[in-house]
């Protein structure tokens, strides 16, 4: 863990430091060797929180984007179950930064425990299996209401560059048709509407995740993947056609909104001017 209680204050590990685990109260000892990331460990027993994942520099980097009092915050359920959230913001949003893969059962138990939760997943290990394709117009734009996109897939060169059907054309033939039932029609290419798409672009793209970690596609809480860029990749469903899409959200925006919004689902849904000069 990054923080332990020393004289009732949460502190980072310092050489020869002694403190107490904020969860179980047991003695903790600072590990500050020259080749290890400075951290605290329990003096006697193993880690008390079964959900705790060994910290990597990536975990640490994420925690450090938030003020110290937001990191490693104990969270107690009504029945007394206690866990340590990686990050909990002053507005009550819990952020779990997850490096290892997870079973459905593990994911679900954490979603039910924290409820107002958002996942940040380390994508560096599956980066080569994740392709990001053409831009999509903002799903709320007028343009998007008429378009039904063909799902992009690795090696499917048409769909990868952007092909779609128009609902307005399909309705002429089948008046009952909706986005969710439309299965075919006249094929259009994105090059016909490139300018309009660019104009209403708001970070949405098609993608293909080869051999996906399925639990993240089924998650009930928002999932953002960190591939090490300045943008996070948020998993989303585009529209009533159930098209899976991603949205690029800058890390700066994500952190700002997590500190400001009170519902995890509202992160990156509203525009705020961000003062880049501030941490
Ligand atoms: Zn403990």
UniProtKB/TrEMBL annotation:
InterPro entries linked: CoiA-like_N (IPR057253)
Source species, domain of life: Bacteria
Boundaries of every Competence protein CoiA-like N-terminal domain copy: 7-49
Record's protein name: CoiA-like domain protein
High-level lineage: Bacteria, Pseudomonadati, Pseudomonadota, Gammaproteobacteria, Vibrionales
């Amino acid at each position: 863990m990054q923080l332990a209680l020393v004289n009732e204050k949460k502190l980072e590990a310092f050489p020869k430091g002694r403190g107490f685990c904020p969860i179980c109260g047991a003695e903790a000892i600072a590990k500050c060797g020259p080749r290890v990331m400075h951290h605290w460990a329990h003096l006697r027993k193993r880690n008390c929180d079964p959900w705790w994942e060994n910290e990597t520099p990536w975990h640490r980097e994420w925690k450090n984007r938030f003020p110290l009092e937001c990191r490693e915050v104990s969270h107690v359920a009504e029945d007394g179950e206690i866990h340590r959230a990686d990050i909990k913001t002053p507005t009550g949003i819990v952020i779990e930064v997850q490096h290892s893969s997870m079973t459905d059962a593990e994911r679900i138990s954490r979603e039910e425990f924290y409820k107002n939760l958002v996942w940040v997943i380390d994508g560096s290990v599956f980066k080569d299996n994740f392709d990001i394709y053409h831009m999509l117009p903002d799903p709320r734009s007028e343009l998007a209401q008429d378009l039904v996109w063909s799902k992009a897939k690795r090696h499917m060169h048409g769909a990868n560059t952007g092909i779609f059907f128009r609902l307005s054309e399909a309705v002429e033939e089948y008046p009952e048709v909706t986005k969710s039932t439309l299965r075919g029609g006249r094929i259009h290419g994105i090059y016909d509407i490139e300018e309009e798409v660019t104009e209403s672009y708001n970070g949405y793209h098609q993608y293909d995740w080869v051999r996906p970690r399925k639990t993240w596609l089924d998650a009930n809480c928002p999932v953002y993947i960190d591939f090490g860029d300045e943008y996070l990749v948020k998993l989303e469903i585009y529209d009533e056609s159930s098209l899976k899409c991603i949205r690029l959200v800058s890390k700066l925006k994500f952190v700002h909104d997590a500190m400001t919004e009170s519902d995890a689902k509202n992160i990156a849904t509203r525009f705020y001017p961000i003062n880049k000069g501030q941490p």
